[in-house]
Design brief:
single chain, alpha/beta, binds S-adenosyl-L-homocysteine, five-stranded parallel sheet, Rossmann fold
């Protein structure tokens, strides 16, 4: 090990910072976050840095650095572009046995700064021993994406009740088992869903009972996005990776399913048009049964669960059964397909509003309000409309939408198979007849479709 990682208590301790530019500013922020009392010496200080120090009890010496300024300091940092000065600071500090860091100059450091993931009171420092700060930063961003910001609040809650748990359990082993359950169970999830008060109440109950076993499980209604796993949210990924059971739809891509916990039970409840693999009522019951058995159930839905996803209906039933749940939004098909298809849904010159409409028509009769879709300067996005394309086009034309209105079909958006065709209301049926784009597909109607030829950037296009 090149360097020993340690955590330094800087609260109310004096630190000398040499330099007054942007690099010094970054270091000053860090030191102040750790509660240090910063004395800064430089010939000039940038405004933001001056303000920061003024509001945090810092001192500024406008002038030359001198070794006497090191007196009573517990750390010293040099952040100047004057190499001679930096080296002087280093030598003085070493002579006085004060830990010193010259920014970005490992040979002139007796300590170095790690890349930091701050979820105070949890703090992670990552070091490459000065070999590759970029690698350390890449690792940091991986961790940043995996650790919810609410870990801070969870850490604080645990800190507050730590002594109570100590009193309740005499053996270290019992405490460890208890905390492991708490921190991977409902208390943690309650904090992650912003219910800190409930989390605390539950934790107090668990301490009293001396047991943190999950009595009931929980359901996570998770939007899996349009297919490309890169478009999952961090939260979706985290919940998928701790699921005991996953119920998924037809629209959830194989690549996304791959990211679920390896030993989770995977249950397909997918629906195809007119062919419901598992009736909705049975899906609701499955969710409830698994959760009541204490499992963490992920209900994965294509796109966003609250946009043509029947997410609301499933939740109503869970609520009735008293099962706790969380909902995670996903990127909905309209948003994904329009961005990956190069068609902005709104644009200052073309559309000031956008409407998401279901193209699924009961008995193939036109029961949509076409009247409100014919005004110009709005974008209409039809979901589930590929098989009713002829009726949608007919409805729009009949109600007075001009025949040369632009229309696009985006099929299998964001996947390698994505295809886009664009045309007008009076020729799209013919174009689709030739192109035979497959479901799932969305249909975009409006002036914004004109932008597609310039803005298309992803995958192949047909017409
Ligand atoms: N909750 C989903 C929509 C479910 S309805 C969401 O928010 O995206 C199913 C319809 O979504 C399909 O008929 C199709 O119109 C659309 N859709 C979903 N994924 C799609 C994709 N990758 N490409 C094109 N359309 C898609």
């Amino acid at each position: 090990m090149e360097y020993l990682p340690l955590f330094f208590d800087l609260k109310h301790r004096s630190v000398l910072l040499v330099g007054g530019g942007d690099v010094a500013l970054r270091k000053a922020r860090l030191l102040i976050r750790a509660g240090a009392q910063v004395t800064l010496v430089a010939h000039s200080v940038n405004d933001e840095l001056a303000r920061l120090l003024a509001t945090h009890n810092g001192k500024v010496i406008l002038g030359d650095y001198g070794a006497e300024q090191l007196r009573h300091k517990v750390l010293v940092l040099a952040a100047t572009d004057d190499e001679v000065l930096n080296e002087q600071v280093y030598r003085d500090a070493v002579a006085m046995q004060i830990p010193v860091n010259v920014v970005d100059n490992p040979p002139l450091c007796t300590f170095i700064f790690p890349a930091i993931v701050d979820r105070s009171p949890i703090v992670i420092g990552i070091s490459s021993g000065g070999q590759s700060p970029v690698l350390a930063r890449i690792l940091r961003s991986k961790l940043e994406s995996q650790i919810p910001v609410s870990f801070s609040r969870l850490g604080a809650l645990v800190g507050r009740l730590r002594d109570k748990v100590k009193d309740r359990f005499s053996s270290v082993n019992e405490r460890r088992v208890f905390w492991e359950k708490v921190l991977q169970g409902q208390v943690a999830e309650k904090v992650f869903s912003g219910r800190d008060q409930e989390a605390e109440t539950l934790l107090l109950q668990q301490i009293e009972a001396g047991n943190a076993d999950n009595q009931t499980g929980e359901v996570y209604l998770v939007g899996a996005g349009p297919g490309d796993p890169d478009l999952l949210t961090f939260k979706a990924l985290r919940l998928m990776q701790q699921a005991d059971v996953v119920l998924y739809d037809r629209l959830v891509s194989a690549e996304v399913l791959e990211l679920c916990r390896r030993d989770a039970d995977m249950i397909y409840v997918g629906k195809q048009r007119n062919n419901h693999a598992v009736p909705q009522q049975d899906i609701n019951q499955l969710l409830i049964t698994h959760a009541q058995a204490g499992r963490r159930v992920v209900r994965l839905k294509g796109g966003d669960p609250f946009i043509f996803g029947r997410g609301g209906e499933e939740l109503e039933q869970l609520k009735e059964a008293g099962i706790p749940f969380q909902v995670v939004p996903g990127i909905t098909a309209a948003s994904a397909c329009s961005t990956y298809g190069g068609i902005p849904l709104t644009h200052r010159n073309y559309a000031q509003s956008v409407k998401f409409v279901t193209g699924q028509l009961k008995n193939r009769t036109t029961d949509l309000n076409f009247k409100e879709m014919i005004t110009p300067n709005q974008t209409i996005v039809f979901y589930m409309g590929l098989h009713t394309l002829d009726l949608l086009v007919e409805g729009l034309l009949e109600h007075g939408k001009p025949a040369d209105t632009l229309i696009a079909i985006v099929s299998q958006g964001t996947s390698e198979q994505q295809r886009v065709i664009t045309g007008r209301l009076d020729n799209i049926l013919e174009l689709q007849q030739q192109a035979q784009l497959e479901a799932p597909a969305i249909i975009i109607v409006g002036e914004v479709v004109a932008l597609q030829s310039q803005l298309s950037w992803f995958g192949k296009e047909v017409a």
